[in-house]
Hints:
The chain has 216 residues and is an all-alpha fold. It has a domain at 11-154. It has helices spanning 11-29, 39-84, 88-98, 101-104, 109-121, 133-148, 151-159, 163-189, 193-213.
Amino acid sequence: MFKESNRALNPIERWSEVLFGLIMTLSFTGTLSVVSGGREEVITMLLSVVGCNIAWGIIDAVLYVLGSLSERGRNLVLYKAVRSSTTAEEARAIIADAVPPVVASVIQPAELDSLRGRLSALPEPPERPRFSKEEMKGAGGVFLLVSASCLPVIIPFLLIQDPWPALRVSNGIAIVMLFLGGTMLARYAGFRKLRTGLSMVLLGLVMVGITIALGG
């Protein structure tokens, strides 16, 4: 039976969502140092942060579903193209284009023909990809990551009445989150942990600065 592939959030996708929510949050907290910094301004800032992250969490979740369905739709198109190919050369080219280049460079024609035969033996595929539980889970994960990423950064403002110490603690937490996210990516991609973590801190701060400068 033809099964549509499951599309779980990999570490890069998870960290990308957290980074997006974190930058959104820092673009608000980063402006607190140039305003009066009273308690009323802090509350307004916190409400803006939560509302903005929730809104973008919803938007990102919808985009995730569209991207996931489009990806599976493309895979279905390639699968049907292999089944309907009239020559072995045509099928080999389609399969070779569908796999990573490093794999395509070492796979032999006989192996491509074997894949074509096994694909052709499968039952008739569905006409189009359908919304599944995997999209629900993935979309929910995206929403939670974007929305909840602001919580560690805004908690100091809830616990510390004076906004200036709260801001310093909040910035420290954000830096730690950026560094830990960088080390997570380093483990996944085989990079150096310390260098990647520090680079992620620098990149995150630069992106926040650009966002604030452009009025984001």
